[in-house]
Amino acid sequence: MSNKHTTSLRGFKDVLPEELYYYRLIEDVFKKITNSYSINELRTPLLESTTIFDKSLGSQTDIVTKEMYVFRDKNGESVCLRPEGTSSIVRSVIQNNLVYDRGIKKRKYWYYGPMFRYERPQKGRLRQFNQFGLEYFGYPGISSDIELIILINKIFTALKIDDCQLHINSIGNQVDRARYSSEIKSIMSRNTSILTDGEKVTLENNPLRLLDSKNSQIKDTLSSLPVLYKSLNEKSQKRFDSIIKLLDQLNINYILDNTIVRGLDYYNDTVMEWKTDKLGSQDAICAGGRYDQLIQSNYSIDVPAVGVAVGVERLVEMLKINQASSEKTVYAIVNNSGGDMNLFIEKSELIRVSYPQHSFMNTDPEGSISSQIKYAKKLNDKLAIIINNNQIKLHNFKDNNEVEISIPELEKYLY
Ligand code: ATP
Ligand code: MG
Predict the structure, then answer these.
(1) Residue among 131, 82, 89, 88 nearest 109 (CA)
(2) Where are the alpha helices (DSSP H) in 119-233?
(3) I need a surface site. Which of 173, 183, 198, 354 has the fewest CB within 10 A?
(4) Residues of the chain with pLDDT under 50
(5) 282 alpha carbon – ligand 2 mean position (Å)
(6) Class of the CATH-defined domain 17-173+232-321
(7) pLDDT score recorded for residue 101
(8) Kind of pairing between the strands at 284-290 and 305-311
(9) What is the pLDDT of residue 60?
């Protein structure tokens, strides 16, 4: 059965309970770790004025040229479903005077929620996906870049993901990039025969992006260029050197990666991605960098900033590969008090209140005891709780033995 009544849109998926388990796990870890750094949550609308993204992402970027869900509302205004978080968060902190009020305020925020991009759906690439992001405002120093790196690493560690590697690079300032872009243009314009039509457009509009091209002929051709770092201004070079030194001192693993340039125009200096070799070609799990000029150029206020965004669906895939079990322990509560439903409900509620960290399921209180026990065994083949009028009994499936037990004594048996 495949028609529009029974099928979700391409690239849009339902998240069923088994998978939601992983989303919850990830959300819990995010919340715990951001809390330990005293970072506040900020929620912005899913629908925004299109200009917010046109302006901050850059008119030639993939997102703006191809991937945005843009439409006119009934008033004729151009609106879009947010394709990423940073531009909205920046709009919000300016609108609400959160980062500037007769002077820069230092602020740290996190966000979590769906983003929308009209891309070709494939494994690890959806049209609606979730990002968890962090944005620091008012911190120009390298300690903020490092704090973000440590925080993201902590998230991976807490989720027991150890096959994800930080790739780091510096792209300096706009002048450095313009100079390097023209060097790329001059080399590549002598070799246009190796470029596809799409790559020719990239060469014209965003030549730096060719550095992270998967086309090996492009890679070979560009390998004759000195690495980008060498053409950075002195201040950016020194900044990057200090970051690398600190990473070394702190024993944080990284790969210096000249191909990390990021697709968006707003970045400067530090750019980074966490990649894995477990997910095929959609290998980036987290990405970000500094965007010290974005607020200045869009809102004429000078607030330095740095941020990262994690692709939650790709993290979910990693957890599945690592086979973190999504099976949660449920304890069945079986009714053996006959029609005395008030006794059963009162007792089962008492158990829930006493053990709020555990999950209990009332199997089918109106059903026969044998059918309830059968169902209980499916839910949990070790034990079931039976309410027998005023008594509570523990049913052990190993030997089908039953013992009377008090609610406080239950603690020993719940795992
Ligand atoms: P990619 O190169 O994979 O397209 P990107 O550079 O467009 O990534 P960002 O905008 O930096 O990605 O988003 C941060 C993270 O969000 C990515 O590293 C990835 O994990 C995730 N992500 C981006 N686009 C998608 C998508 N269409 N579906 C699922 N996850 C995505
Ligand atoms: Mg993309």
Answers:
(1) 89
(2) 142-158, 174-188, 197-205, 216-222
(3) 198
(4) none
(5) 9
(6) alpha beta
(7) 85
(8) antiparallel
(9) 73
- At a CB cut-off of 8 Å and minimum separation 6, what does 331 contact? 358, 359, 360, 361, 379, 380, 383, 384, 385, 414
The confidence score (pLDDT) of residue 170 equals 97
Report the distance separating Cα 382 and Cα 178, nearest Å.
66
Give the tokens for residue 73.
């509302």
The Cα–Cα gap between 99 and 301 comes to 10
17 vs 172: CA distance, rounded Å = 45
Distance (Å, rounded) from C-alpha 152 to C-alpha 134? 10
Residue 151: both structure tokens together: 């925080």
pLDDT at 370: 93
Show Cβ contacts of residue 55 under 8 Å, excluding neighbours closer than 6 positions.
87, 298
- Any idea what DSSP says for residue 83? S
pTM for this entry: 0.86
User: What pLDDT was estimated at residue 326?
Assistant: 65
Nearest CA to ligand 1 atom 25: 125
**What pLDDT sits at residue 411?**
94
Which residue shows structure tokens 């300016």?
94
Which residue from 68, 127, 264, 314 has its CB within 8 A of the most atoms of ligand 1, so it is best to mutate? 314
Ligand 1 is surrounded, with C-beta below 6 A, by: 84, 117, 119, 124-126, 129, 131, 263, 282, 284-287, 309, 311, 313-314
CATH of 330-413, one of 3.30.310.80, 3.40.120.10, 3.40.50.800, 3.30.1490.190: 3.40.50.800
CB-based contacts of 146, cutoff 8 Å, min separation 6: 243, 246, 247, 250, 252
Q: Of all protein residues, whose CA lies closest to atom 5 belonging to ligand 1?
A: 263
- pLDDT for 283 equals 92
Q: What's the rounded Cα separation, in Å, for the pair 172 and 210?
A: 17
Look at strands 330-335 and 383-388 and give their pairing. Answer: parallel
Whole-angstrom CA distances from 349 to 100, 142, 333 are 50, 53, 10
| Most ligand 1 atoms within 8 A of CB, residue of 129, 161, 270 to mutate | 129
Q: What is the residue with the minimal CA distance to atom 29 of ligand 1?
A: 125
Domain-wise residue ranges, the chain: 17-173+232-321, 330-413
* Tokens, residue 374: 């059968």
**pLDDT of res. 55:** 84
